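Wed. Picked up where I left off yesterday with GTP cyclohydrolase 1 type 2 homolog. The coffee machine is broken again, so keeping this brief.
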Amino acid sequence: MSEHPPASLADVTAALEAAYPPGLAQDWDAVGLVCGDPADPVRRVLFAVDAVAETVDEALATDAQLLVTHHPLLLRGVHGVGADTPKGALLHRLIRGGVGLFTAHTNADSADPGVSDALAEALGLRVGAPLQPQPDQPLDKIVAFVPTGPALRSVHEALSAAGAGEIGDYSHCSFATAGTGQFLPHAGAHPAIGEVGKLERVAETRLEMVLPRHRRRAVVEALRAAHPYEEPAFDVFELAALPSARGLGRVGELPEPEPLSAFTERVAAALPRTAWGVRAAGDPDRPVRRVAVCGGAGDSALSAAIAAGVDAYVTADLRHHPASEHLLAGSLPGRPTPALVDVAHWASEWPWCAQAAAVVEKALGGSVETRVSRLRTDPWTLGA
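Structure written out below (tokens, as returned):
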């Protein structure tokens, strides 16, 4: 470690946000840097599912400068973080100890790879497509007709500044074709080119640029402001969503089929032991090969698992009534449904910690030492 200068907190968070883009997070979520100075040096990072007293103790005891967790400490809005409150006390301990806190939650769930990839790999599955694909950012395309000449450059710059023409690491992307525009100004018009009552033909350029759909209003306003015409001609098209490797859950396959009973034992052996344990619903002798997984609470994706035609679905926090109704539906002739394997929420997400640690190691090499917490922070501590 001494051979490499320490990375900054900003370096570490940049690596994590590149792997788990904040834009993938649900709008109700709270992800990113919770506390810490981005300019501070970071030599050691601890990864855990939860920010609780035990993992804060571990971060301080191991001289970590950053604690990275999957679950947000401040998921619900707060009006203060006084040290006399449970969560505030943790934050004060972290800050006094010089430890930052960073969270990747639903953005890590939907990333490629993400939480469910880590779970699938832990189970020995050959990982495939998302269970619930998340389309890439919705795009529009604006097509504007601009008189050829200096006005074209002005319009192009205005649209680019408003957010159009960005593709990956490129900006000002466009396509232009030459043509002829035609218009007849009537009484009351104030044409920039031509005269009232006289049919006009003008050399124009058809300018095409893509834009994020949420920038539509800004781009159209920029076009109207920069275009020389009183009534600019333009079209806005909504582009079809493209398939994406991002999304919730994953579908994968075992190397060979095995009975549900053996597969349940496989799951139990692959994940940390918890009081919750591993529970399965279905015929113990049913062959299992194609499997859907969803780290964390996944009964909302149960219908997607059925539609995927898998043999088993592994997730956490399955509720009694959805599971019971699922088995009842599967008892009908011609309507096969997957077996269910229910694990502890914490255990289903713990494999992600090693994945996130590998992200930082790959990005920052020997500058940062990583450690995955093995403390069981599952809230259920006793089982009979």
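Quick read: The first strand starts at residue 7 and ends at 8.
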